[in-house]
Design goal:
The structure holds two protein chains of two kinds.
Chain A lengths: L2 H11 L1 H23 L2 H6 L5 H22 L6 H21 L1
Helix pairs in contact in A: 2-4
Chain B lengths: L28 H22 L5 H6 L6 H10 L4 H14 L5 H4 L3 H17 L5 H8 L2 H34 L3 H49 L2 H10 L4 H4 L6 H4 L4 H23 L1 H8 L4 H32 L1 H7 L11 H9 L4 H37 L5 H28 L1 H13 L1 H13 L5 H23 L7 H25 L19 H9 L11 H21 L1
Helix pairs in contact in B: 1-9, 1-18, 3-9, 3-14, 3-15, 4-15, 6-13, 6-15, 6-25, 7-8, 8-9, 8-18, 8-19, 8-20, 8-22, 9-10, 9-15, 9-18, 9-19, 13-21, 13-23, 14-15, 14-18, 15-16, 15-25, 18-19, 19-20, 21-22, 21-23, 22-23
Classes of the chains: A mainly alpha, B mainly alpha.
């Protein structure tokens, strides 16, 4: 697999990206609902606090933090690291066999 | 599954099922869309995770590749299943501040102990499961005994989780039980089957964030409506035991022990030592998360990193319970000793119903459903590993290709899930049986812990001492359980679980020592890296160094461990003054 694809896949499969995607969707939906679609009877349930709006904004902020973290410290894909990982797995398998 | 998962979901919400159920949430289209988004993302994770699964180690231990923050959050979240979430909020409603003991004394010290003292042996010996460690230290009989016990427990507990979820979904949304069981079972099956442990760990971490996102607003808004913490306190004072519930010690209500001194001893030794060390340091469902870390340093940091969210999440789980005790009329009635059409376990759904508008309700629902699935997936993925490596490769069919074991792992996932679904259906007819299963299995970790500690500290402990200690300790716990259930030992369920744990601990060690004295010890060379003091000098230097020297201070395991203990202590002190 070419290196470029690897980078994209790594970014997509990075848990931080997944968390960011989820909270972006949740945040946007909640903000929209909070801004205009929550009936006042439902606002009263929460003692007048617009939970949708505030929680939505909070989730968008969290999503932004995760995006920032992902971009600031991307998963390393250099050959050396992958080689080390492969070696570790091979070692432990050999050891496991030996133990049997 | 949880520490002292005994009374959790007992009785269950099933009694409130019906068209006019008091728990029914009026979920709208937007809520279902948010829930569906979560399900879609989780299945997506399974498919992306598949690209990284090419060996049995990838499938069963995530290729030992995960960073510490992921394994740490997963370590914590594997325990934060819905039974834990609903059950601990229920404890908050019933026992007030005393419920924090389950976290700050009942989990944090054990997690720190695991990271500082036990993980070097676990991860350093490169074993792939807890039973495998037992074979290395003791003998195959010990491994097989523990593996069979664990496999049976996991699959039944997966069924318990599934059934608990079906009941809640039925009460909240009105879906029929069978539909809820099958949908949840199939979703869990798909993503664990395709993505293996990585997929279930990713889902656990994702679920953790969604639960926090849901519980923080519930806590804050709940406090706001109740007039702040001062308002909650004032209202709680008016209740019969209110004053006592506002103090963490001596925790009479929690322990069921009337003497203050023995009650504190019960909390510290019973909950803080016997049950929690047994659970957190040897339960493979938890420990497996650390085994999947990328290196020794990350493995040691796994439970230590987990200790911080574990300490803080108590606030957004237990405080809502306390809020419910003063704002939900049905729960107030229960605390006054009366009867009510709701139960303590309904606290979180009741608060969702009372506080949340459509939209955010969907987020909270997604979190609740996700935590049920995560609890079940954690059981299934640890069952996989133990069955494949310990029972199949280690006993029934040794010496096959890795591809063979990868396939076996996949088949076990399918069969395990199907049995869990079957168990959930059976549970529908015998609800009490599930309570017994949960209670009983909560004892099984204690003899295991006893045998571990004996093996780590005493090199003279022989191979036969392992299985003999395990079997006799387990039998002791079962006897206490039966005597308590039949009324021969008339103490509260909490008291009996401390007693059962204590008896199991003592019997396992006494039998282990006696058997050791009458059987041949293993040679020192065989025990290198498995017993304290008997170490390959190079290996131990590396293990000690991992996480202590040459790392930035915030990755130093001692800094992390001590900080976690200080944070938990600070939380206790904080609640003395607020």
């Amino acid at each position: 697999m070419p290196n470029h694809d690897n980078k994209v896949l790594n970014f997509l499969f990075d848990l931080r990206t997944i968390i960011a995607v989820l909270f972006t969707i949740y945040g946007i939906v909640c903000v929209i609902w909070g801004a205009g679609l929550t009936p006042s009877a439902q606002l009263d349930k929460a003692g007048g606090v617009n939970i949708n709006l505030w929680a939505g904004v909070g989730m968008i902020v969290v999503a932004a933090l995760f995006v920032w973290w992902t971009l600031a410290k991307p998963v390393t894909t250099d050959a050396a690291a992958e080689e080390a990982a492969a070696r570790r797995i091979a070692e432990s398998e050999a050891e496991a066999k030996q133990n049997l | 599954m949880n520490v002292l998962g005994t009374q959790l979901l007992s009785g269950t919400v099933s009694e409130v099922v019906g068209a006019d159920a008091p728990l029914r949430l009026h979920a709208g289209v937007v809520d279902y869309v948010l829930v569906a988004t979560y399900f879609a993302l989780v299945l997506g994770i399974g498919f992306i995770a598949r690209r990284s699964v090419s060996s049995s180690l990838d499938f069963l231990l995530s290729g030992r590749s995960l960073p510490a923050w992921v394994t740490g959050l997963a370590f914590m979240s594997a325990n934060l299943g819905a039974t834990e979430l609903l059950g601990q909020s229920a404890n908050g409603a019933e026992f007030g501040i005393q419920a924090v003991h389950y976290y700050w004394i009942g989990a944090i010290p054990a997690m720190v102990f695991l990271g500082l003292f036990m993980m070097p042996f676990f991860y350093g010996s490169k074993v792939r499961s807890v039973p495998e460690f037992l074979r290395r230290r003791y003998n195959p009989a010990t491994q097989r005994f523990q593996a069979v016990l664990f496999a049976v427990a996991s699959v039944l507990l997966a069924g318990v989780n599934l059934y608990a979820m079906a009941i809640v979904v039925n009460a909240l949304l009105g879906w029929p039980l069978w539909l809820a069981i099958i949908i949840a079972g199939v979703v869990v099956l798909i993503y664990t089957l395709i993505g293996g442990l990585s997929a279930s760990i990713y889902n656990e971490v994702l679920q953790f964030f969604v639960i926090v996102a849901a519980m923080v607003p519930i806590t804050l808004v709940g406090l706001h409506k109740a007039g702040g913490w001062a308002g909650v306190k004032a209202k709680l004072f008016e209740q019969p035991n209110g004053h006592s519930l506002l103090h963490a010690f001596p925790a009479h209500e929690l322990t069921g022990i009337h003497n203050p001194f023995w009650s504190v001893i019960g909390v510290v030794l019973g909950l803080g030592f016997v049950t929690s060390f047994g659970y957190w340091t040897t339960n493979f469902t938890e420990v497996q998360r650390a085994f999947s870390a990328k290196d020794m340093s990350a493995a040691r940091r796994t439970p230590l990193i987990a200790a911080f969210p574990k300490t803080l999440i108590a606030l957004v789980i237990i405080i809502p319970g306390i809020i419910a005790a003063v704002t939900v009329p049905g729960i107030e009635k229960l605390n006054a000793g009366g009867t009510s059409n709701v139960q303590y376990n309904d606290v979180v759904p009741l608060l969702m119903q009372q506080l949340l508008p459509n939209g955010f309700l969907g987020v909270a629902l997604a979190g609740l459903l996700a935590s049920f699935m995560a609890g079940m997936a954690a059981n299934v993925s640890s069952l996989n590993t133990v069955f494949t490596y310990d029972l199949w490769q280690g006993w029934l069919r040794p010496g096959k290709s890795d591809k063979h074991y990868l396939n076996v792992g996949r088949w076990v996932t399918v069969i395990g899930t199907l049995i869990a679904i079957g168990t959930a259906f059976i549970a529908g007819n015998f609800g009490n049986i599930m309570d017994y299963i949960q209670t009983l299995f909560s004892f099984f970790n204690v003899p295991l812990f006893a045998v571990f500690i004996m093996g780590l500290l005493w090199k003279r402990a022989t191979g036969h001492a392992g299985w003999a200690g395990l079997a006799s300790g387990t039998a002791g716990a079962v006897v206490i359980f039966v005597l308590n259930q039949t009324g021969v030992i008339p103490i509260s369920s909490q008291g009996s679980s401390y007693l059962g744990g204590g008896v199991a601990l003592v019997i396992a060690i006494v039998v282990g020592v006696i058997v050791s004295l009458f059987s041949n010890p293993k040679r020192d060379e065989e025990l290198v890296g498995l017993v304290r003091g008997l170490v390959d000098k190079n290996a131990v230097a590396q293990a000690e160094a991992a996480g202590t020297s040459g790392v930035v201070w915030y990755r130093n395991v001692w800094v992390l461990g001590i900080s976690a203990l200080v944070l938990a202590a600070a939380c206790y002190i904080f609640f003395m003054f607020v």
